[in-house]
Amino acid sequence: MTALVFAEPHGDSVADATLAAVTAASQLGGDVHVLVAGSDAAGQAHAGIAGVSKVLVASDDAYAHGLAENLAPLIAGLADGYDAVLAPATTTGKNVLPRVAAMLDVMQVSDIINVEGPKTFKRPIYAGNAIATVESSDPKLVITVRTTTFEKAAAEGGSASVETVAGPGSAGSSEFVGLDAVKSDRPELTSAKIIVSGGRALKDGETFEQVITPLADKLGAAIGASRAAVDAGYVPNDYQVGQTGKIVAPEVYIAIGISGAIQHLAGMKDSKTIVAINKDPDAPIFQVADVGLVGDLFTVVPELTSKL
Amino acid sequence: MKILVPVKRVIDYNVKPRVKADGSGVDLANVKMSMNPFDEIAVEEALRLRESGAATEVIAVSVGPAKAQETLRTALAMGADRAILVETEDAVEPLAVAKILKAIAAEEEPGIVMLGKQAIDDDSNQTGQMLAALMDRPQGTFASKVAIEGDHVSVTREVDGGLETVKLALPAVVTTDLRLNEPRYASLPNIMKAKSKPLAMKTPADYGVDTAPRITTTHVAEPPVRQAGEIVADVDALVAKLKALGVA
């Protein structure tokens, strides 16, 4: 049994999401190799991951921007030598891996949260309202990994060999035009230790900023939002926490003016501690919160910010 | 240019799914079913492209039980021109759905196949990508903006780090994210009109696709329940709690 993990490097360094996928791959019980579509320096960085025995580096420009049309043939071509191909369930992994699976005529197992056996996994369905145990009958496994539920492998201490691989290069049917990156000094939502999240009760974008940002600044927290707040246009979609947005599991999640719709809970209920502030004592968020405060967020949150 | 819009009949997104006591699955008996919300966005986007003159015909297709006709009638009532139901009472996995869609695309030759990024029942997020692979055509997943530019389509994608734009040669597969548009409601006259629009009935065998599942679900369970904690009286008590957690 040998597993190949498709890594999504952060520039020249290792992403936390990759470390979680490596842990899932190790649990399959065999050797773990990592494919880095990026620079040689990124390849060297991945060679240090504990438990990884080989790193494959594909440094062709065609693989630089995560274009599935170019990456999928590369990965499918390498898959011959592997029993399993895994990727973190990031937007890149979710984009590329099903394309690989179809090329291999394999039914992908998406978003696993636990490895139960060599071909048996647990995965959430219905927005996390049910957990399915599934068993694959395909000769090869193609898997995406929910990164918040696996411990991160140690980024250092390993000494994998590094090998250069070449693939078919550009498929010529797609072109990367640009990335409008969110520029922020804040920690990234999916890796933040603390998240302050706002809901529709924040009224508008300006109020959201005035109430949520000072508290997040004080705590060094990432800022999230419910789908309702995103739909109402208070904040961009990449703030969205939930079934249809990001899945997060910080140490502390502070939900402000969020009622706790099923689809929101699906994205944050694995948080270690949930704190809820809401004026409605019957809001469903209080049923999952470890600490709740019933009150008007427009007075409570500024007071909280000033007292921390 | 035709646009093919695959739609799926799923549990209504406002309904809380209940796991069956025997762990065999989720109870769908007497539960309100609707069109997958992401697919509704795909129908809307296809209609807008037709209304702007970029597309000529919108064809809705579903792979599912006889009752999925209702879902297709909804698409027709929104404004799709005609529909195809590939009828099967079995649960069909994304890979097999993609194979059926590939066969339909080979017949219909759409410029764009537009579908939801994931269905809210199995949350697989695979069908569009798999279809693009089988067709050997480019894919624009998680789209928040779609613009036809001659023989290309420009797709702005919701990615983890922000918004990414890619340019794809047509024909292409586009999967929709939430912010792409706000789907219209079907008006009563249009619901009436939809009843007489053409709806072709097919089966997976018509397309030579084997729908036998590759993945077996052995058990379905309720997720671990979080216990409600403590309601604190005021901000000072909350501050004390946060300090105890080492937050401040």
TrEMBL record, chain A:
Cofactor: FAD
Cofactor: how and how many bound: Binds 1 FAD per dimer.
Pfam families xref list: ETF, ETF_alpha
Keywords from the named record: Electron transport, FAD, Flavoprotein, Transport
Gene Ontology biological process terms in this record: fatty acid beta-oxidation using acyl-CoA dehydrogenase
SMART domains: ETF
Domain Electron transfer flavoprotein alpha/beta-subunit N-terminal residue range list: 3-180
MF-aspect GO terms: electron transfer activity; flavin adenine dinucleotide binding
Entry's family note: Belongs to the ETF alpha-subunit/FixB family.
General function of this protein: The electron transfer flavoprotein serves as a specific electron acceptor for other dehydrogenases. It transfers the electrons to the main respiratory chain via ETF-ubiquinone oxidoreductase (ETF dehydrogenase).
Protein name: Electron transfer flavoprotein subunit alpha
From TrEMBL, chain B:
InterPro entries assigned to the protein according to its UniProt record, in alphabetical order: ET-Flavoprotein_bsu_CS, ETF_a/b_N, ETF_b, ETF_beta_N, Rossmann-like_a/b/a_fold
Gene Ontology terms describing biological process: carboxylic acid catabolic process
Pfam families found in the cross-reference section: ETF (PF01012)
Keyword Transport assigned: yes
Domain Electron transfer flavoprotein alpha/beta-subunit N-terminal: 23-211
Keyword Cytoplasm among record annotations: no
Swiss-Prot/TrEMBL cofactor(s): AMP
Recorded GO MF terms: electron transfer activity
UniProtKB keywords: Electron transport, Transport
Function (record text): The electron transfer flavoprotein serves as a specific electron acceptor for other dehydrogenases. It transfers the electrons to the main respiratory chain via ETF-ubiquinone oxidoreductase (ETF dehydrogenase).
Family to which this protein belongs: Belongs to the ETF beta-subunit/FixA family.
Oligomeric form and interacting partners: Heterodimer of an alpha and a beta subunit.
Matches recorded under PANTHER family: ELECTRON TRANSFER FLAVOPROTEIN BETA-SUBUNIT, ELECTRON TRANSFER FLAVOPROTEIN SUBUNIT BETA
UniProt name for this protein: Electron transfer flavoprotein subunit beta
Origin species: Aurantiacibacter luteus
